[in-house]
Amino acid sequence: MGEFQPPSSPLPTPVFTPPQSSRHVPPPSETPAPPPTEATTPSPTPSSPTQSISSTTFPLPKLRLEIRDLNHKGAPIFLTAVPASNALQKSIQDVLKLLYVSPTTKTSTVPPTRSVTLILRSMPGVAYTTGTELDAEHKEIHFSLDYIQNSITAPRREHEIMGVLTHEMVHCYQYDAFGTCPGGLIEGVADWVRLHAGLSPPHWKKEASGKWDAGYQHTGYFLEYLEQRFGRGLVRRLNEKLRIEKYQEKRFWTELCGRPVELLWADYGKSFKKEKGRNEEEGKEGEGRNEDEECVMVEKEDTTIPTKKGFHAEPKSTSTNPRVT
Ligand SMILES: [Zn+2]
User: Fold this and answer.
1) How many domains does the chain fold into?
2) In 153-252, where do the E strands start and end?
3) What is the pTM of this model?
4) Could you list the residue range(s) of the whole structural domain that residue 61 is in?
5) 122 and 204 share a domain?
6) Could you give the CA distance from residue 172 to residue 66 in angstroms, rounded to a whole number?
7) Per-residue pLDDT averaged across 49-72, rounded?
């Protein structure tokens, strides 16, 4: 693990290694857990068209569910919100179809993940994914029962649980350039998949300020811009590139998109401004006609539910510097 391997070599072990450099790790405060809403209808689908997901199915790994505390109030909430086996299977199929198309696609290589164990337990934060100590091909997704109990309003339970599961499932199946990929890009790919699975939460907002690799939906929407600009399959090619080589920023992006990432990010900023300008123009034209609808769109924060900062919890071994996994 860690050595460069040509594409024809055997599969690298797809350990999801937490980012090596804190430079790339977005602080948890940048990715607050979704604010609870009082929405009574399912969340809207992403503003960009959801990529059509093919109907081919991939072979599944061994799937396990471990509930560490059945007396925790979050446990029955989880069990009634989603059928556990289907939830895991569906999130795997969505992830694999978006990152690898089909089991027979020759241009992408599915990692040999052998098992995924979903562990529901009381812990701070939302969720994280890790390889087991003995074998990185066995993955564990730790999902907070406290988060499930306290931070998701009843109408959003299924959608949010599936969204978090899908994000974490990406970490069970994505490549990380032998541990050299920036954490923000790893998290961006995970949220790009979540977006395309139609599971983006209502608080997600496309914006183009700050750094391209701030992670999560911030980077996810940037990846979506690149998909639209360079053609469907860009993120799949990006993931495949992370399978075969170590990450060297300038070379990586120039080979993938023909331009360094800073320029691509600047292009995205311009395109975003234009799009925003157009939307505002349209908004002005429509002013006065749909005031009622606009009022309905405003999210109301429920102050009785604690707002948790940070999409991910800290893995058990760390103390002061939360790692994104
Ligand atoms: Zn993540």
Assistant:
1) 2
2) none
3) 0.74
4) 47-173
5) no
6) 17
7) 83
